[in-house]
Amino acid sequence: MKQKTTSTRVSMKYLATAALMLNFGVAGIYAQPGSVDMTVSGTAANSVVQLTPGTPASEYNLAGDGNLGPFTFRVVNSNAATPDFPSTCTGATKIHFAAVAGAGVLRSQDGSLLTVNLTGGGDCIDFAAGHAICTRIFQITGGTGRFKNVSGAVTLTMTVTPILGPPDNPVFFTVTGEVKGTASKVADGPGHSNGPL
Fold first, then answer.
1. 34-184 fold
2. CB 60, CB 47: distance < 8 Å
3. Per-residue pLDDT tens for 68-113?
4. Positive or negative CA dihedral for 141, 143, 149, 151?
5. Counting beta carbons within 10 angstroms of the beta carbon of residue 7, is it exposed (0 to 12), middle (13 to 18) or buried (19 or more)?
6. What is the model's pTM?
């Protein structure tokens, strides 16, 4: 009887140790930041939202897929009223406006929401090419569902091409691009095949 008790204790010790190791291992994997790599497409237009006085906001309605699974991404932001001249946007036919305020909500297929706040970016408008290269840099600010407690930062890079309106004041645009960055503590979900990021 005593031998059975000792054997049971040893087995329980091994089980407890294995459970702790598994728990720490999963927690370690879960806390590691993972890369975000997604493609997007959609439309852009002026918004009725006014984020900065005297400057109309733009609204992007996007959808895409990637290592977070299928999603929609809605962004509202405003740009500076006057151009600046960064080294990333130079040339006789180019003009640049910095992005100054905005936010976005990414909605995954299962209804989980990821919220982001604009921290930088801008639009490099190339009149000769007939499109703009637009970047929006975001800090992740929160989320629901599998995005609860997520942290990190992502950059949305877009090619924005006018399709409606006069050449000097287009009002509707096509958008193609990508979202890249890092996000930690993303739980697994539909269409998310890489496990927790």
1. AOC barrel-like (2.40.350)
2. no
3. 999 999 999 999 999 999 999 999 999 999 999 999 999 999 999 9
4. negative
5. exposed
6. 0.78
